[in-house]
Amino acid sequence: MSSKKKCPGVMENPRSHYAEPLETLAGVFGYPAFRPHQEEIISALIRGEDAFVLMPTGGGKSLCYQIPALQRPGVGIIVSPLISLMKDQVDALRANGVAAAFYNSSLGAAEARSVLAELHGGRLDLLYVAPERLMSEDFLERLAGLEIALFAIDEAHCISQWGHDFRPEYVQLGRLRRLFPAVPIIALTATADSQTRDDILQRLGISRTACRITGFDRPNIRYTVEAKQKPFAQLLSFLGTREPYDAGIVYALSRKRVEEVAARLCEAGFAAAPYHAGLPDRERARVQDAFQRDDLQLVVATVAFGMGIDKPNIRFVVHYDLPKNIESYYQETGRAGRDGLPAEALLLFGYGDIAISRGLIENGGNPEQNRIELHKLNAMVGFAEALSCRRRVLLGYFGESPEVDCGNCDICLTPQKRFDATEDARKALSTVYRVGQRFGMGHVIDVLRGSRNERIRALGHDRLSTYGIGSNLGQDEWGSIIRQLVHLGYLEQDLARYSVLRLTESARPLLRGELTLNLARPRIRPVPARKAKKVREISRDGQGQNNGLFQQLRALRKEIAGREGVPPFVVFGDATLAEMAASRPANAEELLSVSGVGQHKLGKYGAEFLRVIAEFGG
Ligand code: ADP
Ligand code: ZN
User: For 482, which DSSP code?
Assistant: First the structure.
């Protein structure tokens, strides 16, 4: 496959070199093969057809318009809503020797003039534009006189009011089809339900046959849910299992918690910083930038973080608190592993969080909206409590039904130990009955365990026949049992009324002793912090030869990135460095066969990387 790549030589405009998309893929981007669907989308556009692409984050949407823009005559116009992402995309393209630029409000007058001069001189292959700029009369007039390869509408769901991120300035894009009937349009998004999809097609005038939907699955992300017990200790023990340089995001629901967790991580020796909407713009930009440049390992953030970042090597996302719905959870976990390398999503799931989220929802005004949000929260809880493959539950939520279990989630990887819980279940159900089916889980557990609190005495619940019959088990164990009873349908929780527990019809045979019941043991317990540290040291000592070289290559990448003022991943991605460390190319030709090394980067950085590899010995 690497024979498709040209031999190193003098760089010219790559467009004049490659007749075929596969050659451009290899020669410009350094990749040996297309990912699923990329090739057919690219061919359709090159033929002048439209395309609608629904592909998960990290699926490789960008190449779907970048390669046709290089292959077709004229300039490709790319519409993107986020100015910060435009610059990264353009930096990455230029690093591959592609003539790309952006045109938005962040440019000074002189820079803007020079971009327009390049555009009119036919010297650009790709131009990234903000939607309101593109649709200004002045700019449309400019375009009318130029050859245009294609229009690409990134984050196309922004055009739909049904989508979760409607942007009024996107609506104008609906005029493009009429204004430029002969120019193909490609619309791309990672999140759109069927209503939003139809809306995008209709508004942009794209035919239904142009749809390419590649599914939602992110197979490289491993989903894990742990019962939340001592969350910070759990976080530390998780970090202890990761490489010390792995980048990650920790999401928490409140600003206060974000600040607190970030401070404790710094204390524990991690390069961590908080990020939330209450911080000054400048500080937020600094955190984002440092993270992007691998100077910061961990960002502890509220949901506000992530929209404007495009960092491919985020290795894990931890949810310290329960997200409000599956859409948010999926979007946030989806920021991990965009480069396709293994990544992890860890959710710490505590029952207390549900009550907090529910309270927040109920305090919001509109009852109809509240009902929808409670429903979405329930689905999220259902995911966290699931005893079957996590990926099945997630994809099922988005309307897909995989045929087999994924083999890459906590449920698939460590099937739960089960125990005969018949007696315990009966104790719990009787207690729910004795307290009049008018109390939530916390109170029921207090009664079971014979707790001596004020409320119990005041209510006279210390005189119930079930008072103290469950003192053999801890609070967490009872929590786990009751949750499972809810999940299996023996108990129901009145979500509209303080999560009051009630028996269902199915509880009767169990209470009467006509049924035995096996339940899962609560999963994974937190490793004490001290032990976590040890894990960390071991994983550091245990790094092999390849990893030593990998670290040196990373250091070189960082140095080059600093020199050129771009994020490190623009130089080479982690997957490319890992392949270099493993295959240890000895000359330019071997280096070129590493995935991610194209002609331009070979010419620019090849010698330096080859030198580090040669000097590493082995
Ligand atoms: P998306 O926009 O769909 O989230 P990107 O276009 O940013 O994803 O692609 C994600 C990563 O995958 C990028 O690092 C990109 O260079 C890489 N990539 C895309 N297509 C291929 C391919 N055919 N072979 C190898 N890597 C690819
Ligand atoms: Zn699974």
Answer: H
Sheet architecture: strand order including 247-251: 221-227, 343-349, 314-319, 247-251, 298-301, 272-275
Task: Tell me the one-letter amino acid at 489.
Answer: G
pLDDT of 307 reads: 65
| 60 pocket-lining for ligand 1 (C-beta < 6 Å) | yes
- CB distance 220 to ligand 1 below 6 Å: no
Q: Which ligand is nearest to the CA of 311?
A: 1
pTM exceeding the 0.85 threshold for the entire prediction: no
Average pLDDT (333-338) is 91
Q: How far apart are CA 374 and CA 380, in angstroms?
A: 10
Is 6's pLDDT higher than 70?
A: no
Ligand with an atom nearest the CA of residue 413: 2
Would the CB of 613 count as within 6 Å of ligand 1?
no
How far apart are alpha carbons 56 and 190 in whole angstroms?
5
CA of 22 to the centre of ligand 1 (A): 15
Mutate to test the pocket of ligand 1, among 1, 2, 28, 35 (most ligand atoms within 8 A of CB): 35
Burial of 598 from C-beta contacts in 10 A (0-12 / 13-18 / 19+): buried
Give the closest residue (by CA) to ligand 1 atom 5: 60
Please provide the distance, in angstroms rounded to a whole number, between the alpha carbons at the two ends of the chain.
27
Mean pLDDT of 396-410: 83
Instruction: Tell me, in angstroms, the distance from the centre of ligand 2 to residue 347's CA.
Output: 15
Does the beta carbon of 35 sit less than 6 angstroms from any atom of ligand 1?
yes
For residue 105, what pLDDT band results from cuts at 50, 70 and 90?
confident
> Is the CB of residue 58 below 6 angstroms from any atom belonging to ligand 1?
yes
Q: Which domains does the chain have, with CATH numbers?
A: 34-213 (3.40.50.300), 221-413 (3.40.50.300), 418-520 (1.10.10.10), 547-615 (1.10.150.80)
Q: What SS3 state is found at 115?
A: helix
Q: Name the residue at shortest CA distance from atom 15 of ligand 1.
A: 60
Mean pLDDT for the chain overall: 86
Ligand 1 contacts CB of residue 55 (under 6 A): yes
Q: From ligand 2's centre to the CA of 396, what distance in Å?
A: 12
DSSP 2: G
Q: How many angstroms separate the alpha carbon of residue 603 from the centre of ligand 1?
A: 22
Structure tokens at 130: 């903000």
Q: Is 340 left (phi over 0), alpha (psi -120 to 50) or beta?
A: left
Q: List, for residues 144-160, the tens digit of each pLDDT value.
A: 989 999 999 999 988 88
For ligand 1, atom 18, the nearest C-alpha belongs to: 60
pLDDT tens per residue across span 590-602: 999 999 999 999 9
Confidence category of residue 308, pLDDT binned at 50, 70, 90 = low
Contact indicator for 527, 507 with CB cutoff of 8 Å: no
For ligand 1, atom 23, the nearest C-alpha belongs to 34
pLDDT, position 152: 97
Residues 344-382 have pLDDT tens digits of 999 999 878 888 888 888 887 777 778 778 878 888 988
| Residues 181, 191: Cα–Cα separation, whole Å | 27
Write the CB contacts of 72 (distance below 8 Å, at least 6 apart in sequence). Answer: 45, 46, 149, 150
* CA-based nearest residue to 199, from 228, 166, 227: 166
Between CA 603 and CA 618 the distance in angstroms is: 25
Does the pLDDT at position 539 exceed 50? no
Tokens found for residue 222: 């491993």
Q: How far is the CA of 58 from the centre of ligand 1 (A)?
A: 6
